[in-house]
Amino acid sequence: MLFDVFVNGTLVGSFGHPQTEHLSVSVSGTREGSYLFSGVVCREEGKQLHYSWPDVTLSESDEVRIVRRDTGTASPPSKRYEMGRAERKAWEQNVCEFCQRNETQVPSLIAGDRKRPGICSECVELCVEILKGKQE
User: Fold this and answer.
1) What was the pLDDT predicted at 65?
2) Strand segments (E) across 8-95
3) Cα–Cα distances in angstroms (integers) from residue 84 to residues 17, 38, 45, 46, in the given order
4) Radius of gyration over every alpha carbon of the chain, rounded to an integer in angstroms
5) Rounded Cα–Cα distance for residues 54 and 5 (Å)
6) Confidence band (pLDDT; 50, 70, 90) for 6?
7) Position 111 pLDDT exceeds 80
């Protein structure tokens, strides 16, 4: 099962998996802004997995249309977790592009996508310190 999501008539992504157990496409908002986010729980090789995709930022005037389809290919997810484990297993694509540690080896990770690299909180702190030193 897949859902194509359109914002103002433009396809922003196709979300789902051939072996979907649960799929959600949601819109959430605060006073600061609104976002569309998607996730799916599925089975692969006997393992239960959770995939998620990058949030889509929405403006006040955006029109969102969600269309279900049962064939096709999903957009590449940004995160993948194996479920049902005491310890989270990292996906090889969820790494800090600067220190090369994966998401289970750092306090937090800002996942990258096709337009920007992933970076961990420790590398962000290091960059801040480097910039502070150059400003003084």
Assistant:
1) 92
2) 10-16, 20-30, 33-44, 47-52, 56-58, 64-69, 79-82
3) 19, 20, 14, 12
4) 17
5) 13
6) very high
7) no
Query: What span, in angstroms and rounded, lies between the C-alpha atoms of 35 and 53?
Result: 12
pTM over 0.70: no
Q: For residues 38 and 31, what is the distance between their CA atoms, to the nearest angstrom?
A: 21
The full set of domain ranges for the chain reads 1-86, 90-136
Interatomic CA distance for residues 68 and 6, integer angstroms: 11
Residues 6 or more apart from 73 whose CB is under 8 A from it? 2, 14
The number of C-alpha atoms within 13 Å of 69 and in the hemisphere containing its C-beta is 12
Instruction: Give the residue among 8, 81, 73, 91 at the shortest CA–CA distance from 39.
Output: 81
78 contacts 53 by C-beta, under 8 angstroms: yes
Structure-block tokens of residue 69: 């389809």
Q: Are 14 and 74 in contact (CB under 8 A)?
A: yes
Q: What pLDDT is recorded for position 136?
A: 54
